[in-house]
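Now for a specimen:

…
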Amino acid sequence: MERQKILSVAVVAAGAMLLSACNDNDSGGRLVIGTPDLGDYGDTPAQVSSEMAADLEQMYTDMEEISELIADFAMAATKGVTNPGTYDCPVGGRFTTDYDEANDNNEEQTENWDFENCVVSIEGVGQVKISGGVDYYYLEKTTAEGEVWKFSVTYDGITGEVLETGEVLALNGSDEADELGAEDVASGTSHFIETINFLEMRYGDRYVGITGFKSRQEGTEASSDYTVEGKLAASALAGYINLSTPVPVTVEEGSTCPTKGQINAAGDETAKLLFGETALGTGGAAALWIGDQLAESYNESECEDLTEMLGIETYHEDL
């Protein structure tokens, strides 16, 4: 399972549903870090329309850039370090690192970084100063149930800034994924689950906050069900949307489009993405409704592309 799939389901799902918020991002939203109320963005329903996906694409880009910046920072700070301990950062400050790795027929690794006014230079960004902690966990092993894969990252009160621009950087919360692949197992059941109880990110004037998020796809090679729920708030949205799955999205072997299902994204209105038999009467294999209006109908080929964009797997071994 590629790390890039994590978090993509919620954001791309909403983007594929062509939701958008208004373009005026100067809404006065507070950029609150460390409290799960998501600031003013968590109080303002995003405007929902069928005309734009750019704002949600920007939200995804913001999340990726912030995560990659932290990863690049950690790599630059710890370059050449092969043992746990406390070390000076390349430009200033210090960090402490600890890690554990087990390989008795398993691949399991934990790594912890704690930064104290640590300054490094990052290509294309300049000097960045950070304090706070980052914890990674990775597990891959074979059990009686099947192939198990788990990943988590926790940001513990990360605060800092890009020194040349003064842009503030802050992260708090965690993201975790759990996958069970069940090839050659009697039950044939597999799953992929992503959970974010709370995660906030800020980079300059860009903000993303997520609470109560869970996406899950579970089933057999013949049939699997996908569900998603959670609240997404962002400066790119100038507000929030709530994701839910009133009807699980069912994918059956040999089908290029889900045979049934409904995903909702609620802001100032509710967008409903319907599949298969749930979309009957719309003239397509899938359909998008905004409020009580049919906004878009998708044929089989378009539905196949849409399913891929949503991150919903059509074969159980790929979950």
